[in-house]
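Quick one:
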Amino acid sequence: MSLAARGSLRARGQPSCNGIFCRMVCLPRSIIGGFSRVMGRRNQYQPPNLQLQHPQLQQPLVVPEEWAFLASFEQQYGTSHPFFYASSFMQALKIAEDEHQLMFMYLHSPEHPFTPSFSSGTLCSELAIQFLDTNFVCWGAIADRGEGLQMASTLQPASFPFCAVIAPAAGNSIAVLQQIEGPIDPAELVEILQRTMEEQGSAFGGARGREEEQMRARIKEEERIRARAKEEEKLRADRQLREEQDAAYFAALQIDQEKEMLRNARAQKTVEASNQPNYGKLRQMQTEKQLGKPRQASSNREVRYKETTAQEKDTQFTQILIRFPSGERREQSFSSADKILSIYRYIDSLGLPGIGNYRLISSFPRRVYSVDQMGMTLKDAGLHPRASLFVELL
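Output:
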């Protein structure tokens, strides 16, 4: 069809979209409700008995409706043509919508005098094949049977060959953005299709942009929900770990206290048994000592009271229970702002035999506090308000 012929189509009173021929068409129920049993690309499946046979031996062909157009077209014009989906009209339209492309529809009329020249010279040209395969979802049908007849009755072409550019619309309708009737050369066909794509891009690209924006918003919201859930899970894990650490600390402390009480009781019995004959003398010496140094005892009690009061007031103290390889245990208070180095200095100040090179290890969770961690504060190291450490000899 020439450009003048296309102008005559617009002059017939059809509505326009951005200056291009456009009309809304309501599809018949038979088209909407029809679903193909076979859909695939060319050369994936060939209907049986499509090879030409001797006229006397040739049997009537039974070709599925979806393959009727391709079988007829390729039998006469070969397999070099644009890729046409062997599917129902609605399936091809859905594919075009999913791929954000327009549909190129071709109604093939084998008996029309203009059909051979258009099919072989225009539709099967390399220019038309490359442009259509790149930019459109193509669908074809025979104009006098099946869905081809129904679309011909709906669109009512004035002449053949008949081509149309289709876009999905709301409800049971389609938007016919452009239709081409009669013979046309490849360059003019590509020019019409190119201009249709350019001028209809803004009209039919808005919905695609809104869909992509909504998709991005959904993805962003899902990521935010996942990040919040991950943070809450981390908080729960940290809280559970702290509770387990506290439970382990108190359990170890209780065991140590019980052992200490048992050792003190045994030592007291031993002292009482060995000093029973000298009880009177010891009592006299103790009395003299108490009477001779009343002021010093009073001063010592005052110092201990002040130290105890200061510890009670300081809520940032950290209780550290230290276990030695010999089984001995020591408990010491540190400020939460003290560094790991303070614990090492405290252990060194004890002067315990056999304690040379060593490192500190927490048992639950297992963590090594060595030279690299000596500059960390007890609070930053996760040892506040209380922790249990083991001295491991190197």
